Structure formats: structure tokens, C-alpha cells
Amino acid sequence: YVRFHLISPLIQQSAENIILFDTFVNILSHNLGEPAYEADVAQLEYKLVAGEYGLIIRVKGFNHKLPLLFQLIIDYLSDFSFTPAVFEMITEQLKKTYYNILIKPETLAKDVRLLILEHGRWSMIDKYQTLMKGLSIEALSAFVAAFKSQLFVEGLVQGNFTS
């Protein structure tokens, strides 16, 4: 079991940065779908999560091939690229996801509660309105470059691994 948290102070600076981060993680997951399929068949699991303060990479499975899967994820992260069609598809999916969160009273109430309790939190309404104004491909590319340049990493490895 391997878990890494790539933390960046850039994410929480604005609602737009949070949306760009969500878009980045979703495109990265989309890009990994085909190359990581063989790992799935070999009973290796991975998950990319857009956390509040950074990207969480979770990898789990048999230890002799786990480093290969982790290396694949890191390679796709470092050489991040996307097409305009994928960008449009992911932003449309995010619009639907944010809208579905806004129409459910229990998730909206949780968001409002956390907005009151946490300093510097952006509300789902702010994120949705910013997303509806539109994102540019250039903004995403600039965000990803800045994100990769300002990273702090925390990691946890459990199981049959050597140091």
C-alpha cells in the first residue's frame, strides 16, 4: 500500500485555482485510463484524489509490480498533456458534478457549514459560478506548471517493501 500526498499552497488561493486543480486531476485520471488498464487486470489498484490541499495518489497491490504502476502515474503527471476535446469534456463533467452538489440540500448544508468553520474556504457556489464563466486551456497549462513547481510531498508505504 503506497500513498503520497502532493501538497501545494497554490490550490486554495482562489476558486479558479480549485477548479483548475479539479480539471487537472480529472484529465490526469482520464489519461491514465488506458495505460493503467493492464495494472487493473493484474490486481493492482490506484486512485487519484483531488484533496483540499493537493493530489493524493493511492496505489495498492502486489509489491513486485507496484513501483511500475507508481512510476507510470508519476510519468503521466510530470509529462502532463491534453487535447482541447478532452479539456471540454472534463469541464462539462465538472459543471454537472458541481450542479448536482448544489441541488442536494444535505451536501449544500455541509458545504455552508464548512465555509463557516474553515478559514479561507471557497464555497461550492463560488466554484460553480467561476466554472460557468469559463476556463481557458492556457490557464490550465499555467496552473499545472505552477502546481508542479510548488510541491511538498508526504508519503506512507506499508507492506513488504525495503527502504
UniProtKB/TrEMBL annotation:
Superkingdom of origin organism: Eukaryota
The keyword Glycoprotein belongs to this UniProt entry's keyword annotation: no
InterPro entries, per database record: Metalloenz_LuxS/M16, Peptidase_M16, Peptidase_M16_M
Sample GO molecular function, one term: metal ion binding
UniProt entry keywords in alphabetical sequence: Metal-binding
Domain Peptidase M16 middle/third, first and last residues per copy: 1-129
UniProt cross-references to Gene3D superfamilies, sorted A to Z: Metalloenzyme, LuxS/M16 peptidase-like
Protein name: NRDC protein
Organism of origin: Sylvia borin (Garden warbler)
Gene: Nrdc_1
